[in-house]
């Protein structure tokens, strides 16, 4: 899936939470198995050749949802 196709799966909510703000709702992307897999693949692609055993992140805006997709695949499938 291309980046443009991924972007089309993200819902735009104008004027939320206040006028003038454009909110990007990624839940529509998360509902799509192909979209979710492609998004995770894009996120981890810069680190494919690194020998990473553990990834830890602290954040407050919901990106943790994408972290669940990577560990589910066996280590050998990354290469």
Order of strands in the sheet with the most strands?
A: 1-2
Task: Extract low-pLDDT stretches.
Answer: none
Q: What structural category do the secondary elements indicate?
A: alpha+beta
Query: What is the makeup of the main sheet?
Result: 2 strands, antiparallel
Our count of helices gives: 4
Helix content: 25-40%
How would you characterize the overall build of this protein?
The chain is of the alpha+beta class and 79 residues long. 33% of the residues lie in helices and 10% in strands. It contains 4 helices and 2 strands. The chain has helices spanning 3-8, 27-30, 33-44, 64-67; strands at 11-14, 22-25. It has a two-stranded antiparallel sheet with strand order 1-2. A hairpin with a 7-residue loop joins β1 (11-14) and β2. The chain starts with a helix and ends in a 12-residue tail after the last helix.
Question: What labels describe this entry?
Answer:
2 strands, 33% helix, 4 helices, alpha+beta, 79 residues, two-stranded antiparallel ribbon
Offer a quick outline of the entry.
The protein is an alpha+beta fold. Helix content is 33%, strand content 10%. A hairpin with a 7-residue loop joins β1 (11-14) and β2 (22-25).
Topology, element by element:
Elements: H1 3-8, E1 11-14, E2 22-25, H2 27-30, H3 33-44, H4 64-67
Antiparallel strand pairs: 1-2
């Amino acid at each position: 899936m291309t980046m443009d196709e991924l972007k089309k799966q993200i819902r735009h909510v104008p004027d939320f939470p206040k006028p003038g703000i454009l909110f990007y709702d990624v839940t529509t992307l998360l509902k799509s198995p192909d979209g979710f897999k492609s998004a995770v693949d894009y996120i981890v692609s810069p680190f494919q050749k690194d020998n990473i055993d553990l990834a830890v992140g602290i954040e407050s805006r919901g990106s943790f949802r994408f972290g669940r997709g990577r560990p589910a695949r066996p280590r050998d499938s990354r290469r």
